[in-house]
Amino acid sequence: MKREDWDRRYAERELVWSAEPNRFLVAETEALPPGRALDLACGEGRSALWLAERGWHVTAVDYSGVALEKARRIAERRGVAVDWVLADLLDYEPEAGAFGLVLVLYLHVSGDERRRVLARAAAAVAPGGTLLLVGHDLTNLTAGWGGPSDASLLYTPDEIAGELPELELVKAERVYRRPEDAERDAIDVLVRARRLA
């Protein structure tokens, strides 16, 4: 979807996504010591806000100005500080080796665009730091619930693992969750990788 489409979608309702953090984000990061975090494709900021409330210094990037304005208002109400950055991830270049945690949650772009974003995301991981990617698995198209209907925007755990050669793989697997009002589980990819200290 184009920037204008996302702006329109975010403007249509109070929250497009849940205010609660993604369950896989919580499970994979709650034991990590706070530091600097980078949330790529942050949307309305639920992950960034959750991390900031736990002491992380978060930079959150999205290309929807409408989503970021909503995120700013929520952060103000909750009394947390996040560095909100309006940028297209295809152009955005984060500081190399600067973040203890880099998130790429539910970013679905073409394979070439994804590889470009992931290369920059991996380069931003500090020594000892973690990269966490969660997104709709290719099998979700036929066996799962929700998510993009274009197979070229989906991927598998093995594909993502192969696109992070400079990081050590911790896990690359399919995970399942039941969205509200869904008739069956959504099938996601979860990849966690780290840069050796």
Describe the structure.
With 197 residues, this protein is α/β, with parallel strands linked by helices. The chain has one domain: Vaccinia Virus protein VP39 (Rossmann fold, 3-Layer(aba) Sandwich), CATH 3.40.50. It contains seven helices and seven strands. The chain has a seven-stranded mixed β-sheet with strand order 3-2-1-4-5-7-6.
Protein traits:
197 residues; Rossmann fold; 7 helices
State the CATH superfamily name: Vaccinia Virus protein VP39
Count of β-strands: 7
- Helical content, roughly? 25-40%
Low-confidence stretches: none
Topology:
Layout: H1 3-12, H2 23-29, E1 36-40, H3 46-53, E2 57-62, H4 65-78, E3 83-86, E4 99-105, H5 111-124, E5 125-136, H6 140-143, H7 157-162, E6 168-177, E7 186-194
Structure, briefly:
The chain has helices at 3-12, 23-29, 46-53, 65-78, 111-124, 140-143, 157-162; strands spanning 36-40, 57-62, 83-86, 99-105, 125-136, 168-177, 186-194.
